[in-house]
Design a protein that fits this description.
The N and C termini lie far apart (109 Å). Strand 1 and strand 2 form a beta hairpin. It is built from three helices and eleven strands, in the order E-E-E-E-H-E-E-H-E-H-E-E-E-E. It is of the alpha+beta class. Helix content is 13%, strand content 24%. Among the domains are: 120 residues, OB fold (Dihydrolipoamide Acetyltransferase, E2P) (Beta Barrel), CATH 2.40.50.90; 38 residues, no CATH class. The strands form three sheets. Strands 1-2-3-6-5 form a five-stranded mixed β-barrel. The protein has a four-stranded mixed sheet with strand order 8-9-10-11, with no helix packed on it. Helix 2 runs parallel beside helix 3.
């Protein structure tokens, strides 16, 4: 926000007229001022609405916007001014005329605003405006007497007409995107350990299976395996051979 202890920029009118009127110049009566470099007016001859952007200057920035607008309205609102025609008929992206504005007494409005500290020179402005800015700084007028810091210019905020893009008729530009494939490093997978399952030991082929404990057997000494998995041996018991524990 602006320094509230600082009053509205004093109105400074430069004593030296900045330009000579041309046949194509027009007189307008300012109807509405929306910014330090923007206003609408009515053509004094045709009564047509004219939307204007003043060339050579730009806003000091949001911090001082209220005070610079008050200066612009005090200087322009309801006044008759001259739009200086350079023969180009340049317009900004919003369709506003890009022109120099001369006050009724012949002073350049842009130079007057800069000298009052209510605007700053736009990019590429002539030396008269930079000298006016130096004077405002020296005498601490307007924004230069406050704690505000003027913002830097932006390409979109400049009041200078933009150069038209070069014609591309008959020209064709091909842009080739090259993608370099990087070699893929193979991922080594460690060998998986081999798990071997040892087969369960099988009893020798001479073992008789499914025998019953105490049942008769033959021949003596042969081994057997009961249905419950118990190992037995054909042993002599008295005169008989019976399956008995090994």
């Amino acid at each position: 926000m602006a320094d509230t202890t600082t009053s509205t920029p004093e109105k400074v009118v430069r004593s030296t007229p900045s330009a000579t009127s041309r046949p194509g110049d027009s007189q307008v009566v300012v109807q509405a001022v929306s910014a330090v470099d923007l206003f609408n007016g009515l053509d004094a001859t045709t009564s047509e609405l004219v939307r204007v952007r003043v060339t050579g200057i730009r806003s000091t920035g949001p911090c001082w916007a209220h005070d610079e607008l008050a200066f612009a309205r005090n200087t322009l609102d309801g006044k008759q001014v001259r739009l200086l025609d350079d023969g180009r008929g340049a317009r900004d992206p919003e369709g506003r005329l890009l022109v120099k504005v001369q006050l009724l007494a012949g002073q350049d409005y842009a130079e007057t605003a800069v000298a009052a500290g209510a605007a700053v020179p736009d990019t590429g402005s002539d030396t008269r405006l930079t000298e006016a800015e130096a004077e405002a700084r020296q005498h601490r007028r307007g924004v230069w007497a406050s704690t505000c810091v003027p913002s830097t210019p932006s390409a979109s905020g400049s009041s200078q007409p933009s150069s038209p893009p070069p014609s591309s008729a008959g020209e064709k530009t091909t842009e080739t995107s090259r993608t370099t494939a990087r070699p893929t490093t193979p991922v080594e997978v460690p060998p998986q350990p081999t798990v071997s399952t040892a087969p369960e030991p099988q009893p020798p082929d001479d073992i008789q299976r499914g025998v019953d404990m105490g049942a008769p057997c033959s021949p003596e000494g042969v081994r057997g395996l009961t249905a419950q998995g118990q190992e037995v041996t054909c042993q002599r018991k008295g005169e008989d051979l019976r399956w008995m524990k090994a």
